[in-house]
Amino acid sequence: MEIPYTVKARPDTGLFNAKVGIWLFLASEVMLFGGLFSSYIFLRVAADDSAWPHGLLNIPIGTFNTAVLITSSVTVVLAWASLKLGNFKKFRMYQSVTILCALGFLGIKSIEYKDKFTHYEIWKTNGERMTGHIEGSPWFWDTETLRQKNMQELTFHPDPKFYFTPKVKHAGGASGEEHGAKHEAVKVPVSQIKRLSAYVPAHSTYFGIYFTLTALHALHVLAGAIVIAALWGPLAKMWRTEPERFTNRIEVSGLFWHFVDLVWIFLFPVLYLL
Amino acid sequence: MSNAHTQAQPHPHTHSAAAVQAHAHDVAKHVKVYIAVFLGLLAGTVATVAMYYVHLDSVPLTITIALFIATVKAFLVAGFFMHLISEKKTIYAILLATAFFFAGMMYLIVWGRDEVPRGTQYWEGRNVQLPVDKTR
Amino acid sequence: MDASTHVAHAHPHVHEAHHEPGFLRKYVFSTDHKMIGMQYGFTALLFLAFGFFLMMLMRWQLAYSGQPIPVIGELLHSLLGDGAIGKDPTTGKLGVMSPDLYNAFGAMHGTIMVFLAIVPLAFAAFGNFVVPLQIGAVDMAFPRVNMVSYQCYFIGGVIMFASFFIPGGAARSGWTSYSPLATLAHPEFINGQTFWIIGMVFLITSSLLGAVNFIATIIQLRAPGMTWMRLPFFVWAEFVTAFLLLLAFPPLEAAAVMQLADNLLGTSFFLPSGMVVAGNPAEVSGGGSPLLWQHLFWFLGHPEVYVLILPGMGIVAEIIANNTRKPIWGYKSLVYSVFAIGFLSFIVWAHHMYLTGMGTKISTFFQTTTMIISIPSVIILTCLFISLWGGSIRFNTAMLFSLAFLPMFGIGGLTGLPLGFNFSDLHLHDTYYVIAHFHYVVAPGTIFALFAGIYFWFPKMTGRLMNEFWGKVHFILSLIFMNLVFQPMFAQGFAGMNRRMWDGGATYATADGVVGLPQSIIGMNVGISHAAWALGLAQIPFIINFFYSIWRGKKASDNPWGATTLDWQTPTPPPHGNFDKPIEVHRGPYEYSVPGHAADFTPQNEPEKHKKH
Question: Which of A85, C65, C93, C462 falls 20 to 30 Å from B39 in CA-CA distance?
Fold first, then answer.
């Protein structure tokens, strides 16, 4: 005996099985990201208001990536509509745009990550703080690295404007980051450095939650892209034998993809702008 | 919406390409809606970012407006791309329950934070100090 | 579907005859819900035994603190190493448990019992085997997802088990893994806590996949005529449980990811500013909050309590209806109550956190919701008690365990009320009273219900009955020793004995006159330990009975208990696809002793005799 309602909708619920399944799964995803969002609020409320960093992320790039993800979302739904019209070619065309957008999003995100891993903050013993780049743009240095390398002084290219001014929002920001390396280098004696950290999760709870949220989101993008690519390539032959079932699969994978987009819609303003 | 039409097909065994042909007009109409929603989402993004550069003085107002725009965008995606506006009762029930628990979690955890006597400060500790401490 | 049912009807054994799946496909990578249910059941029973074994060793340490563990002391030393098992300074004999090992056993006993034994057994094993049968489905909605769910559970279990043997040993920050202790307790970089978190991620994934599958199955695959109010109560219990797992587990997954980052990447999600470790300020950015972990943990943790108990209630309801030969009293009240529990269980969690210094307003809120949630629990218990009234009760082993469940769970539930009030919790928090309370809910509560379920569904799973005499021996001894273990703990808790002491309270004896406890309280440890070991021995009749009956037990008919629900209207054991004819449901789940009917039970799929035209 076969399991009923894998393709056709059950009369009283009006749904096929996979659709119930994907919505239940998305419900649990809502709670997963909800847990992280509550943590974000909790940590931010707990922080002294002036101490929560602002303007450390590259807003133009973030905006562009948002547009990329929105585009992929509309192509997914158009691909599904094409299948409904029986147009397999158009479906393939739209989904290839989706996959390219997904890869583009991940690529841009990696560049953003790389920028953060080479961008540093120094806490000096006299209480002063500065941000910028270390000569040679090394990745992932911290106070321990200085100790191990037994360095006497650090060649540092500070950002033009110190991003962090208590009680003033949005000071400095993206522009400083981009041109940071061009500015004149200063030599900072290691004895004056109390703490050194790249913009990595350990830098602060802000970057901790930023990387957790965006990395988890990127994993979802990757997973969604793999599923969509599989349905674009090897699994697409189902269209010839069971077109309706194939269309259902596209719908279900699309629902997941839209959810990923939806999460980003909240992540972008919360992490980049507020 | 369209999936409801598919279920209502009179002859489930007819070739599906032929069956959906009858609804080609409907689907074409939906495509227009999708494009409109897409443009709406882009406009929302631009509006949010523009607000950042305009720089309102009131932080609560900034947060409220930005989250409001994000919520509208979320409803557009969920309502049209995920076609929730014409979904079945079962799905609504599942999502309603989820919304209840989601709201409960968010609200109670943050309330739990507010109720705790304050004492921790963000940059305190050995490694770092508040550069300017205006509170004391 | 029509064609295949027709074939199956003509040749009932067509599947076995024509394509018998290979060994791997049938027993290891099976997608059949019944086999997956049995896989879950078997693995979970092994973990149940393992968790019990850890507890027996801990009881030795509590009763005979500092003395070498007899018999297996040397073996443990060779397995766990010098750091865990030391020498007795006077005799030089190996086998003294170190405080770290005691803590690891405590943490892992909790983790294993909750996440690897009871939940998989109650929710996944019985749920997988029984739910599709009871709703008249051919399988679960997503059989392959079901298989992956079991595999994730298995991998999670292996990771947890393996963590005992890595350098530094298993996680030792309690089953709740409170930060910052969980981040700071282990000097190694990759340590028991890392394994614990990764293991938990697998277990959570397993639960999520299982929950999605159960809900989808119950919504979509009910047989024709199986309306919502015709569902057996067990199905309702599983349905609500699945929702709890689906929505409560993800926040813990989020918290687990954050704690992993704290441990490996040096973030400070749960580490506050200005933290001092072993006299030195910690080198972290700070700004986090240990309270956040507790919120996220208990957001899962409290619904989890109901995940543990609801399937047990479902099992007991089925068995009571069957063995009183009358309908369950207040079926609708039961269903509404189980829903009320499901909803309320999400907004009571912070009653575990009264001592964290939460403000008075929020404490009052959680205290109020906690009191409210006791109402539906009492309704369920009351309905089950009233169901006994006027029944001609058959006292078989399954029924005895179910009957014992009622007062045992009652004790567990009622002793929870003083913990739900924040003023009395101040005294009782973190004492043995808490241990006695929740073990009364889970051990003589849920585990008795699970034993009842095993005795009840065993004939459907294997086609043979378990031995009744040895079943009753198992029951009587378990009942006596369970109470001897947990009853004295209430007294210890009232006296104020802390639950986490490695030396079993010897510290209190040295502090006599300051915070000292009377010797009568500390001395109870010895009696409790002996009762615990006797409880272990009392399981031997069960284990032998279980394995003997699989191959040699008395042959059972398809419906040996004269039950009405659909799980008993199948061939025994049910073939792949479950039913040999298309099933249609015509009546409610508990039509026992209906006046005017020939038999004292009317199966759900029996058509009405007098059809209206």
Answer: A85
